[in-house]
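Appendix B, record 7
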Amino acid sequence: MTDTLTTTAAPPSAPAADSRALGPLGLLTVLLGAALPLIDFFIVNVALPSLAADLSASESVLELVVAGYGVAYAVLLVLGGRLGDLFGRRRLFLAGMAAFGLTSLACGLAPGAWWLVAARGAQGAAAAAMVPQVLATIQAATEGPRRARAMSLYGATAGLSMVVGQILGGVLVAADIAGVGWRSVFLVNVPVVAVGLVLAVRSVPETRSRRPEPVDGPGTALLAVTLLTLLAPLTEGRAAGWPLWTWLSLAASPLAAAAFVAVERRADRLGRTPLVPPSLLALTTLRRGLMIMAPLTIGFSGFMFVLAVALQEGAGLGPVRAGLALAPMAVAFFAASLAGPRLVARFGARVVTAGAVAQFAGVGLIMAAVWQGWPEPGFLALLPGTAVAGAGQALQLPVVMRIVMSEVPPDRAGVGSGVMVTTQQASLALGVATLGTLFLSLAPGWGMRDAMLVTLAVQLAAIVLTGLLSLRLPRGVR
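Structure tokens (predicted):
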């Protein structure tokens, strides 16, 4: 293992028809496809109170609105990457984007809470078909400095989408366009998807693996069982009162994970094609990058959920003010993302460590503002913390994503991107399930302020873990 990462070791995979480069418009289009599902994961947070009132939805059903999307998305991502390698990534991207638009329309027109739950699950499945094709297309249709820039833009887009989603949700709910209220957070996707489809047809090249691998049925089923038995009880357990099925499900999850690993290794030994090839996980950069991505994303998604609930229900801020409280985070993230490639060129992967330090300081400043200013923490009091935390996040996520994919061969770009985005999405759902459950469990007895402070303290521990793990990354990132 050398100390330098490269994203240019392998040529683009493709027959002649696949060899067209991904131009600027095509890159913009696939990044739009990457942004939409992440925005939709967070845009719902600030819409939950008005959604609950309109549909008379219980707390457990509201959690299913969030969790159903996240679980379906996480469970099917690796399969989506494999299908893109097999049938063509542009084809799967177009199909996934069209399905995402239709399911968004179904969410926006939902006549009842359970209809919305079902539509959100279908929306997550559509996202799982679309998103793996983004990184796979970048990996297969770019090379050299263009690939490095595209990967940096992908990471920046992913992180910025998480913050923008929550801000946009607050603005749309408060604007109450045409009197549709919370439904606008879903209906807004429809015209965006229409534009995206037109752009994709014109600008995204078709790529596929030269050696397409068949779908691994047993592996797909066991991965689905592993994620479902972990995420379902964590998201529903608190609201349901932790019945027996939640504990049985949690106990079954590590057993399903062990069975998944055994089946994948056996398939590899027999010369078959496992869903997640062990040889892919043998890549040091991919494995270490995923180890950092998990705590990084768990902490951030839990932070965003807790902040949305606490500022609206605890501090009494409306959806717009609660969303705009994160505006400094979005601005700082964007600015740091622009500076990130130059910093990486000079300091390498140590930028990730510096980002963890900055994020730790930012969350600490937010805790100080909440401690001193509750129940009315002002925008100016929160501004330093949110800005510093956003900058720290921007110095970590794009670089880690670039490292994860740096040694993945283009022929396996769909599988590699599926594994990475599955880790990211499962961690997003875990963050809401664990930190969100902790916060909501403590709030009735401790009060919103103290529950929020305890939850943010747990996030600080996750940031420390991220920083320590980043020290194991190779110094050079080329």
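Remarks on this record: Confidence is low (pLDDT under 50) at residues 1-19. The chain is about 80% helix and 0% strand.
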